[in-house]
């Protein structure tokens, strides 16, 4: 299975929803990267979080993503 990173913020209810969706899809817990204290990540992801990035391909899924989009990206 592809390795992935979830870019998120502290106290982000949408990020919590994304983590819950990943768990319901029975995917391993993602590596979490919090963008709050990193100006470069803040500039790149800002209001887009949560963003799921596939490490191998570099593909990114912006929220809201769903199980079908996850399956399509993780093949």
Question: Mind explaining what this structure looks like?
Answer:
By secondary structure, the chain is α+β, with helices and mostly antiparallel strands. The protein has a single domain (4-73), classed as Glutaredoxin (3-Layer(aba) Sandwich), CATH 3.40.30. Helix content is 35%, strand content 21%. It contains 3 helices and 4 strands. The chain is globular and about 30 Å long.
Count of separate DSSP helical elements: 3
Q: Helix share of residues? A: 25-40%
CATH architectural name: 3-Layer(aba) Sandwich
Main beta sheet = 4 strands, mixed
* Proportion of residues in extended strands: 15-25%
Give the helices and strands as they follow along the chain.
Answer: EHEHEEH
Provide the spatial order of strands within the biggest beta sheet.
Answer: 2-1-3-4
Beta strands, count: 4
Radius of gyration: 12 Å
Pfam families: Glrx-like
Organism: Luteimonas kalidii
Protein name: Glutaredoxin family protein
InterPro entries: Glutaredoxin-like, Thioredoxin-like_sf
